[in-house]
Amino acid sequence: MDQSKIRNLCIIAHIDHGKSTLTDRLLEATGTLAKREMVEQVMDQMDLEREKGITIKAKAVRMLHRARDGNEYELNLIDTPGHVDFTYEVSRALAACEGAILVVDATQGIEAQTLANLYLALEHNLVIIPVVNKIDLPSARPDEISHDIERLLNVPNDQIVQASAKTGAGVPEILEAIVARIPAPVADATLPLRALIFDSKYDAYKGVVAYVRVVDGELPKNQKIKLMSSGLEIDALEVGVFRPKMVAGETLSAGEVGYVATGLKNVRDIQVGDTITHSANPASAPVPGYRPAKPMVFAGFYPVETNDYPLLRDALDKLKLNDASLTYDPETSAALGFGFRCGFLGLLHMEIVQERLEREYDLNLLATAPSVEYHVLKRDGSVITVDNPAEMPGGDEIEEVEEPWMHIQVFTPKEYIGPIMDLVVQRRGAFDKMEYLDEQRVLLTYFIPLSELIIDFYDQLKSRTRGYASLDYTFADYRVSDLVKMNLLVNEEIVDALSMIVHKDYAYPRGAALCKKLKEVIPSQMFPVPLQAAIGGKIIARETIRARRKDVLAKCYGGDITRKRKLLEKQKAGKKRMKRFGVVEIPQEAFMAVLKLGE
Predict the structure, then answer these.
(1) Any residues with CB less than 8 A from the CB of 579 and at least 6 apart, and which?
(2) What are the start-end ranges of the H helices in 101-222?
(3) What residue ranges in 437-590 does DSSP mark as E strands?
């Protein structure tokens, strides 16, 4: 298609503001899918996305739209996630676009991720089309929200489209705004091929499939192509576009978004952010790629069956291809055997990765409690990075420990300011500033340690504000804190996977709460099982799981007391021997209990 008739754009918004539903209406309005093919959230193709009602992966689709000027336009749309853990997906999608539709809920207004995604889009110099969605709801305030957007973006009110993704109202106006306001891609078809890989996946039949945005030149099928970072030469076995399923074609031209099937079986050969060029006539310089995502939360993944370790390694390799923000390294645990230390962008990201591994690759996994990355200055002057509490050196070797702090923004109705401040103070947070956005809504800004943020902070925030508060966070800096390593002993043996790094002042309540929680989730044995929290050699909290007692006197009705005593003594000796040799099976709930400590 003529390059001046191409528009590349994405949809950005806070969670649940209606991105995926609006995409459905755009697909319907442009006739991309027939009525019988339409289902709700047609772009959310993963089972997990449909179950949780959230978008996890950014998806691309090509639509053809006949505009009012009589011309046909090619619209390449990318639907992006809204949750803060998947901001990396959003930033990659933005790099393949010239414009963005900013969707704001007419009942909720501007929220934390609305601003975070907007600033990302402005960093990429994208043209913003503001849309006020859900105007059909009884509690909608479209004019008031339009006024807020007007002040935020400094745009005239007539450029804000009021729409309802549910009923389809305003969708024709959005399509006309896309054609009129978003510029055509700046690309040169005469230059050597340069195509940016913005995502990829593994297909059992086609090998590695790379999702690309062609920046310059043309990408025909059955051509020899080269990856610029590694110099690896491969064949473009198939090229095509998303409608929204993959549809093969003959060529991808400059400015277009599509896919190329490489036939590669080794998933490590292709990296997101790499540039594809022709082998015979290569480009001189690659397209600027992406900043690598820095994982913030770390946890150990271990197969329940030891034989599944190679399967877990292959599954992580394939998942890494589809999720560039995931990192992993092999590790071993005395309690759990061989596994991997994985890095994630947040807790939801960790939960999604675990569920995808278990469902898509049929694995049964144990996950340890999440931790963050600490900087430890040792007495000998060396600095080490610790993301696994089991690797923390002894207290006599440590000079000081630094932990990551986050800058958080909480949007909330004014009546919840007290409960939020109380929550943040309990989590060692430091107040930054408070701004009134209007008569009802307040923006609270704090600094808070990441280790406190990952343990049910979001759940507590939602429950204390009845779901009205929204949260966004960014990395601030590393700060020195008085931290200690707390070990957990089950049956007088340290379980390294349950060790945690805590602030000294919070060690006792955390230890007592963890022992209490583990007492509920670890099944009782034929012998008493002590649960102890310890710092170094000092026990700071203890609970005991009482033994299951078999009634050995059931058959003794009447008779001499010495006979009963003899049976009880025999049972007591057996329990003593059992306690010495007994092994306590620790269920998955025990490792996740660390997350559910509440207050």
Answers:
(1) 491, 527, 528
(2) 112-123, 142-153, 171-181
(3) 441-449, 470-481, 483-490, 493-494, 500-503, 529-535, 538-545
Residue at a domain's end among 278, 309, 329: 278
pLDDT tens, residue by residue, 533-566: 988 888 888 888 887 766 766 677 777 777 778 7
Q: What is the CATH number of the domain that holds 499?
A: 3.30.70.2570
The verdict on residue 286 lying in a domain is: no
Please state the domain count of the chain. 5
Is the same domain home to 231 and 304? no
Report pTM.
0.72
Residues forming beta bridges with residue 233, ordered by sequence position: 226
> CATH number, domain at 425?
3.30.70.240
For residue 59, which amino acid is it? K
Residue 457 amino acid letter: F
137 in helix, strand or coil? coil
Structure tokens at 474: 């960014």
Closest to 429 measured CA to CA, from 415, 412, 450: 450
Cα(298)–Cα(328) distance, rounded to whole angstroms? 9
Which strands sit side by side in the sheet containing 297-303, from one edge to the other? 327-333, 337-344, 297-303, 365-367
- The helix (run of H) or strand (run of E) holding residue 49 is helix 47-52
Return the exposure string of 423-447: e unless at least 16 CB atoms fall within 10 Å of the residue's CB, then b. bbeebbbeeeeeeeeeeebbbbebb
- Rounded CA separation 173/519 (Å): 60
**Among candidates 402, 398, 444, which has minimal Cα distance to 420?**
444
pLDDT at 143 over 80: yes
Closest CA to 306 of 326, 333, 329: 333
Element housing 328 (H / E): strand 327-333
Q: Each residue of 62-93: b (16+ CB within 10 Å) or e?
A: bbebeeeeeeebbbbbbbbbbbbbbbbbbbbb
Token pair recorded at residue 16: 């649940």
**Statement to judge: residues 359 and 398 lie in one domain:** no
For residue 201, what is the domain's CATH number?
A: 2.40.30.10
Specify whether 379 is located in the same domain as 341: no
6-13 and 99-105 strand pairing: parallel
Q: Cα Rg for the chain, rounded, in angstroms?
A: 28
* Domain of 324, in residue numbers: 297-367
What gap in Å lies between CA 387 and CA 370, rounded to an integer? 9
Neighbours of 268 (CB within 10 A): 11
Decide if 445 contacts 432 (C-beta within 8 A): yes
Phi-psi region of 447 (alpha: psi -120 to 50; beta: other; left: phi over 0): beta
Asked whether residue 381 falls in the same domain as residue 411, the answer is yes
Question: In this predicted model, what pLDDT tens digit does every residue of 440-492 receive, in sequence order?
Answer: 788 899 999 988 887 778 778 888 888 778 887 888 888 888 888 888 888 88
259 lies in the same domain as 340: no
